[in-house]
Amino acid sequence: MLSEAFRTGAPKPSRWYAVTPERVRAFADATEDWQGIHLDAEAARAAGFDGPVAHGYLVLSMLSAMVYDVMPDDLPPGAVSVNYGFDRVRFIAPTLVGSRVRGLFQIAELQDRPDGVRLRWDVTVEREGEEKPALAADWLTLISWKEET
Q1: What is the pLDDT of residue 62?
Q2: Cα distances (angstroms) measured from residue 120 to each of 25, 48, 110, 139
Q3: Which domains, and CATH codes, for the chain?
Q4: What is the C-alpha to C-alpha distance for residues 129 and 5, in angstroms, rounded to an integer?
């Protein structure tokens, strides 16, 4: 059963992802959130940050890419993973533009379904070289597939 591939104890890390100015600008343009703390060093410093900070929702959205780094290699052909929602999200510390982040994923709950599995992930997004993480979340995803006949 596929669900056995997810039953591991230790959190699995994704690769490191760069939080570049270009990525932050693209997110600002996509969401129309051009607040100065994200795009302007002076505005960010005036607000008490060490420099421009990424949008919290940008870092949260990056979970969709990060999770593929920890998925098992033996998913059935045609398997689809979709976001099912969050039970909890906490933005713990700001992510500076120019830094790198990675996700630590641990399965907290797995529910078999006729067409796949529902997963509840305990996720922490680490900031490279920093003690406090960017965020912590309880994230729900569905992985579904059609059985071959």
Answers
A1: 98
A2: 31, 35, 6, 6
A3: 2-144 (3.10.129.10)
A4: 31
